[in-house]
Amino acid sequence: MWNRRPMGLALLCAAALAACGPTGAVKAAEAGESRSDVAREAPAASTGAAADSVAALGAGLYRRVAAELGNFALSPYSVEMVLAMVRLGAAGATRAEMDTVLQASPGEELDRSLNALDQALSSRAGPRANGDRKGDVALAPANAIWGQEGFTFEDPFLRDLARHYGAGMRVVDYERDAAGARISINDWASDRTFGRIPNLIPDGALSTDTRLVLTNALYFKAAWTEALQSVGPKPFRTGSGGQVPAPSMVATKGTFGEGSGWKAAEVPYLGRELSMVVIVPDDLTSFEAGLDGPTLAGITGGVRAPLARLQLPKFTFRSQLPLGQHLAALGMPLALSDQADLSRMSTAARLTVSEVFHEVFVAVDEEGTEAAAATGAVVNITSAPSGAALVVDRPFLFAIRDVASGAVLFLGRVTNPTAG
């Protein structure tokens, strides 16, 4: 159940569960943040379903975005968490489409698995060492939902957000101050990504029709197990066919793998609980055309031979991606249309997902990696219903993964490492 301030929701729900039961509804608090009395579930499920779903979603979005951009990065994990929270409020054909895109079986299996993965990732943070090399690994996922003051949200939807995603309702007023609500959401995302994602929701994206925004933020920073050696500028063939001198570095500790049409190397971060996998296709176009969840998981989880040498360019860039059209093309158009059925979220009005905003920052150098991502789904009312060597001298993919679960946290492509 939910505590309403100052309207006394706790008093409404305290008498009996039936008062706010499965068919009941709960109004958001008038001000401040409302936290559920329902505790977040302990992670009792396997992370396997979550990792498979994240890989499938990441590969599908990668194929779509790669057709439009040069350098870019995604956080499949961050997008997955937001879509899974939206899915809690979806019903009928809308939910069925989301189940297909997220490879989710009916029921709560995916929610429980994502809950286990989310809490497992939080445990990866802390001090780590490799001999004399010491440092802190930062890995901080966070979820939050931002509801319209006084709007009625269904109690099971809010309860499940608390149980599986640890998300509390932060009350804002889109009707009277959409600009102020945008500032609050963007400040939250900026705080949780240490300033790397300062403008997740763009100007004009929220309006008097907005009723809910569901957000996820993910921040990662870690040093390599051993610092990479700078080797100065090295030739790099860009995606457009030219050549640039790219400041580069060399790793001599890690693992190597290869398969039909690709080679890959994996370099661990301090603690060896997280790593980066660099994938170099023989032919980028054909490789990307065949990329799917099982392929991505098979490559990132199968890099096991000793690595003698990896030459890798340094790179830093930012991606800002509206994902609505891509998600619709992947198979969930209803949620992003006037025919959306989000009745498990609220029956006070017809709702639709107007857009899913996603932003990623990534920087890779000799010392390690910093990466940040945030995702926001905007929900509006609607009037309608042995040793090997690998030289990375051409376009490549990279994936930052959680080793134990195999979940891909960040996935991107570099076609020109000298481009911002």
CATH superfamily membership of the largest domain: Antithrombin, subunit I, domain 2
| Low-pLDDT runs | 1-31
CATH fold name of the largest domain, please? Answer: Antithrombin, Chain I, domain 2
User: How many DSSP-defined strands?
Assistant: 21
Radius of gyration: 22 Å
**Total individual domains:** 2
The CATH architecture classification of the largest domain is 2-Layer Sandwich
Strand percentage: 35-45%
Helix/strand structural class: alpha+beta
Straight-line N-to-C gap: 47 Å
Q: What can be said about the biggest beta sheet?
A: 8 strands, mixed
Helix proportion: 25-40%
Mean pLDDT: 89
Dominant shape: globular
Helix count? 10
* CATH class term of the largest domain: Alpha Beta
Q: Could you characterize the architecture of this molecule?
A:
This protein has 420 residues and is of the alpha+beta class. The chain has two domains: 9-222 and 317-381, 2-Layer Sandwich (Antithrombin, Chain I, domain 2), CATH 3.30.497.10; 224-315 and 387-414, Alpha-1-antitrypsin, domain 1 (Roll). It is 27% helix and 35% strand. The protein contains ten helices and 21 strands. It has helices at residues 9-14, 48-66, 76-88, 92-101, 109-122, 155-165, 174-192, 284-289, 293-300, 324-330; strands at residues 25-27, 33-34, 72-74, 126-130, 133-148, 152-154, 169-172, 210-223, 229-237, 243-251, 255-259, 262-268, 274-281, 305-306, 309-313, 315-322, 351-364, 368-381, 389-391, 396-402, 408-414. Strands 2, 4, 5, 7, 8, 16, 17 and 18 form an eight-stranded mixed beta sheet that branches. Helix 2 packs across helix 5 (109-122) and helix 2 (48-66) crosses helix 9. The longest helix is centred in the N-terminal third of the chain and has 19 residues, at 48-66. The chain is globular and about 60 Å long. It starts with 8 loop residues before the first helix and ends in a 6-residue tail after the last strand. 53% of the residues are buried. The model is unreliable at 1-31 (pLDDT under 50).
